[in-house]
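We were asked to recover a plausible sequence for a given structure. The inputs and outputs are reproduced exactly as logged, with field labels preserved.

PROBLEM: sequence recovery
POSITIONS: 463
GIVEN STRUCTURE:
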């Protein structure tokens, strides 16, 4: 059993007013809200760090199981009640501590927001204090953990957000109601949303349980991010391996062909798919050349220079969308074979590459992309109950996938056949098998998973 998570995003509409967007004043309210919530979190973070001994308190209780008094760590609910009793003015507690009077500093803040701030602060304080004590025990001079920052995207728990997502015929919700801070008071306000059928279906999918959304504010956009979780029951890989009809889907990640997918069942490759980068590597290289040139002209990396920032953003987007596209292609294959195991090679640490600066930067981006594809594909596949196995990448591109002999890679330069490490093709000196090198590597991943050929003795020794 495990849990898969995904995020469904709902954009608030900040277009021109006449096009149905929100006015700028309302946009400023969102910033004021995030801001005051950060301050509230900072208040409680300071409060708990000033009372660190309370966080470490042990509570005695009577254990029904052991029929005796025992002690346990104080729970975060107890900490919350304790914190509220000393910081918030109520009928039962009319006099909060003088220097920690939350009610005075943040009048009228809805209690849902306050409690969220307290819970966040408890989490942050706990992890900071335990990091600190670990560091003190280690006796190191450097690397002292810094005080945690209080900044977070606000979570909109029930009572601070209202959105009607039931479909009323063709009518879809066009507004979301948020409890927001204007800078002086707390009010409910309507915000237009970019709702569509896709969003609604995805969010209302009954197998995915939705959590309270987070408000993500960026320079030019604002979105509600709904995290969704789903319980997954997937077989363990050792169990799956017992099944003689097990289907394995192996993925070799590369640069030109971002992914070469091969599917194997009962010793036969039953499907192969090449997912090309559609020229991404070349495009990215050209952009990076422009960036490197600009940096060189000014003699240093230009931090914050407008156009370079835009180029970087563009590159990040290109990588991001390519990663999602390839991950989707991989999971589409997995979806065809329920109960299959997805096989990746463990991503290697890449040595610093040679060549020009732009070439090195491009290599780095390509490696990041591979990491992203790997991560997204794993997550998306897991939501379909497909588990992922990671195998040792040793030798996958150098050995023959037919007979296991060490072969060589070559390429054609014009008509001339040249043997090079980066060759596009693979040839075996023993069985004379020739294949596209990445395809050969992809098939080898299945061998590695089943520990066949040259992987066997080595794995046995190490295991
Ligand atoms: Zn061979």
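RECOVERED SEQUENCE:
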């Amino acid at each position: 059993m495990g849990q898969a998570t995904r995020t469904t995003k709902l954009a608030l509409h900040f277009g021109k007013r006449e096009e149905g967007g929100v006015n700028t004043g309302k946009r400023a309210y969102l910033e004021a809200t995030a801001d005051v919530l950060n301050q509230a979190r900072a208040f409680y973070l300071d409060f708990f760090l000033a009372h660190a001994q309370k966080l470490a308190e042990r509570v005695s209780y009577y254990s029904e199981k052991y029929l005796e008094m025992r002690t346990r760590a104080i729970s975060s609910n107890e900490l919350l009640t304790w914190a509220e009793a000393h910081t918030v003015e109520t009928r039962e507690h009319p006099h909060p501590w003088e220097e920690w009077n939350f009610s005075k500093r943040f009048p009228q803040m809805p209690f849902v927001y306050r409690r969220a701030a307290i819970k966040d602060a408890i989490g942050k304080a706990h992890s900071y204090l335990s990091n600190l004590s670990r560091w003190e025990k280690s006796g190191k001079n450097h690397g002292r953990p810094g005080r945690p920052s209080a900044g977070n995207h606000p979570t909109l728990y029930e009572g601070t957000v209202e959105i009607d997502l039931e479909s009323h015929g063709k009518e879809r919700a066009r507004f979301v109601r948020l409890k927001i801070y204007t800078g002086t008071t707390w009010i409910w306000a309507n915000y237009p949303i970019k709702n569509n059928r896709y969003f609604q279906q995805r969010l209302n999918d009954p197998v995915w349980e939705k959590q309270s959304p987070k408000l993500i504010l960026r320079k030019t956009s604002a979105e509600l991010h709904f995290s969704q979780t789903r319980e997954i029951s997937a077989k363990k890989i050792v169990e799956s391996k017992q099944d003689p009809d097990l289907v394995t889907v192996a993925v070799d990640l590369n640069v030109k062909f971002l992914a070469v997918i091969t599917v194997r069942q009962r010793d036969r490759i039953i499907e192969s798919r090449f997912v090309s980068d559609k020229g991404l590597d070349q495009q990215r290289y050209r952009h990076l050349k422009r960036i490197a040139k600009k940096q060189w002209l000014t003699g240093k990396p230009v931090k914050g220079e407008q156009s370079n920032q835009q180029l970087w953003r563009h590159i990040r987007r290109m990588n991001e969308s390519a990663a999602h596209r390839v991950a989707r292609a991989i999971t589409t294959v997995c979806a065809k074979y329920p109960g299959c195991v997805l096989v990746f090679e463990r991503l290697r640490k890449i040595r610093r590459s040679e060549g020009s600066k732009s070439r090195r930067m491009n290599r780095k981006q390509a490696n990041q992309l591979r990491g992203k594809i790997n991560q997204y594909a794993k997550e998306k596949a897991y939501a379909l109950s497909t588990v992922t196995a990671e195998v040792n990448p040793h030798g996958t591109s150098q050995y023959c996938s037919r007979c296991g002999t060490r072969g060589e890679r070559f390429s054609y330069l014009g008509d001339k056949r040249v043997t090079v490490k980066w060759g596009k093709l693979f040839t075996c000196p023993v069985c004379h098998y020739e294949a596209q090198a990445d395809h050969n590597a992809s098939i080898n991943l299945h061998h590695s998973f089943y520990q066949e050929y040259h992987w066997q003795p080595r794995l046995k020794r190490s295991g």
